[in-house]
């Protein structure tokens, strides 16, 4: 299966963030919320779009591609509504998903998908790529679960690339489900879930912080990365929230999103 989805959010004449373009195909189904949401932290309305995995996917051989553009001054919250289950297909070969976002001057994107469960024998590659204007804001979250209950996971390779202006901020790759890595004592310390969030926001932390199985690390060219390890997805997201609370913009980053 091959599927593509495209989403564009811009400001209208009254300064509201509105969906200007939306095309999607199952399983990448985009569902905008009626009306905009006004965040407590600022005067600009925020468009809210839910990403729904409308059929079982990705399976081996699937190729999924999501493109998102946020116009100048606009704000978008793009969030998942359920977990993604990565499964093997009937034919040999893995699956691939790509998310490519562009955020213009003064724009803001919050990309908060549901967690991804990598099942046995699955082979999946995922890429998130963001191109930001110099004063654009973005946060992208990734919660990866290694297998279902009492199940060895398949293999997963994820990469995150974030560029602001012409400066690279994040270049990160994770390889999970690799038997050679599992033999290392430092491989996830036995945790079943790893959660990360890359944050390019209004302020940057001046020094790293850490707690029980979580950390927040400032990046050399701006922004920060939060990481958490846990035995389950609920605990991982709780620990990720604990890490984000230590960010200078922690109150805004940890507010409830509905």
UniProtKB/TrEMBL annotation:
Q: Which UniProt keywords apply?
A: Chaperone, Cytoplasm, Nickel insertion
Q: Which GO terms describe its molecular function?
A: nickel cation binding
Q: Where in the cell is it found?
A: Cytoplasm
**Could you state one GO cellular component term attached to this entry?**
cytoplasm
Q: Does the keyword Cell membrane apply?
A: no
| Pfam families attached to this UniProt entry | UreD
Provide the function of this protein. Answer: Required for maturation of urease via the functional incorporation of the urease nickel metallocenter.
Instruction: Cite the HAMAP family for this sequence.
Output: UreD
Spell out the PANTHER family in the cross-references: UREASE ACCESSORY PROTEIN D (PTHR33643:SF1)
Query: How does this chain assemble?
Result: UreD, UreF and UreG form a complex that acts as a GTP-hydrolysis-dependent molecular chaperone, activating the urease apoprotein by helping to assemble the nickel containing metallocenter of UreC. The UreE protein probably delivers the nickel.
Q: Which family does it belong to?
A: Belongs to the UreD family.
> What is the protein name stated in its UniProt record?
Urease accessory protein UreD
Q: Which organism is it from?
A: Streptomyces zelensis
